[in-house]
Amino acid sequence: MQALTYNKRETNIELLRILCICGVILLHYCNIEIGKGLLYVDTDSLNYYCMHFIISLAICAVNLFILISGYFMVNNEKRSLMKPLKLIVQVILVQLFLYLANVFLFEKTFAIKAILRALIPANYFVILYIAVYITSPYINKLMAMLSLKQNKRFILIIFLIFSVWPTIVDLIEEAVGHKLMGLSSIGMYGSQYGYSYINFLLMYCIGAFLKRYDFSSIDNKRLYVSFILNNLLINIWSQINNTTAWEYCNPLIVLEAILVFLIFNKIKLQNEKINFLAKSVFSVFLLHFSFINKLNISYFVNSNLAVMILHMMFSCIGIYLVCFIFDIFYKKFENFIFKLKICRCSFLSENFTLLQDK
Question: How far apart are CA 26 and CA 292, in angstroms?
Answer without folding.
Answer: 9
